[in-house]
Amino acid sequence: MIGATIPGDKETSANRLAGLGPLTGLTAGIGAGALLGVIRSAGWRPGLAVSTLIAGLAAMAAGDGPMTALGVTDPRTWAPVDWVSDAIPHLAYAR
Description:
This protein is mainly α. It has one domain. It is built from three helices and no strands.
């Protein structure tokens, strides 16, 4: 989709490509947490519920945004159960 070639034979390149999803998710979560930490250090200190919601939504945006931009998924076509299955883990880890 982006014109990049994953090196290796068919199995190796498939494994490398499959590993990019979890790596991207970890990066999105760590980035969202770091951003919230920077904002909190600047003086904004919302309660636990608001912090959890902001961190979860930021991680969802950071994870789903690139996938949407690359055409991997289209959140406009997601059913409510898809949204819930995406939101619950993000909110649980944000806590």
